[in-house]
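User: I'm preparing a small set of examples for a lab meeting where we compare how different chains pack in three dimensions. I only have the primary sequence for this one, and I'd like the structure in token form so I can line it up with the others. Please keep the answer compact; I'll paste it straight into my notes.
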Amino acid sequence: MLPRSTLSSVPSISKYSKPSTLLIGGFFIDILAYLWYYRPRFKPNDGLSLKIQISIRSKEFLMNKFLFSISAIPNATISIFDQYGQIITPADNGYIGVLKDDTELNIHLKVEGDHTCYTLDQNNKEVRIPKAVNKDGSFTKKLTVTKGQIARWPSNMVCLEVPGHTYNIGVFNQNGRFFFVIEEYFSSAENLPEGMVIWFSLLHGIGSVAYKPLFDARIHWKTLRFNQKMGMRFLQSYDLLQFDEKDLILLDGDTSFRYEIKKAVNLSQPH
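Assistant: Understood. Below is the structure token output for the 271-residue chain.
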């Protein structure tokens, strides 16, 4: 699978990922770069074969949107409470507050109709772990604040699939301020131009930006400008970023991204 959107980057979306295709004419150097970059993964005797499809780029991209209301998912009831049973109601932007160490957050989820609820293994993001079911058929995700932080992705969320929809439900923090968010993932067959945001995960703290035909660029939330209206740093699918090549760094190691954007201007949000 070519690295457009992979399980190592975004949770619970394998059924939406499609093999990438390449633009013919002028991009053979990228093909060679791809083969060179992933050469340790393909050994002569490992029984694997690498197939590259050469055609005009036409594929489905994984994208997402944010929902901050606990009542945003149809036929689902979500409540948040602390270890003392006190109900926590997020603000319109999902803001929960500045939380002290050892604060416990319990995300309680009850769903009607067909659904699947699970978490992702911390060490292998492709492994889905069915969520334990309470006696009343509900699910509870427990999070604890430690040293001003919440558990790292994907341990800070629970995944929910209902017919036609995939949600990641959880809590994230930016600079000591905690937020609740539901991330809904969907696919789009649009051909995205360079610099357009494919997806951005508040729960994960990173996003994917269309760049090269073979390699998308990663961007971290700390790189982004603070949005006064929303009270956080974030991007949205379809946002258009402007950046120079000197603002990119080359990545190596076990990541599906080839580049990381260290500085960019979001042309789709007010400055």
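A couple of notes for your slides: The mean pLDDT is 83. The helical segments are 28-37.

User: Perfect, thanks.
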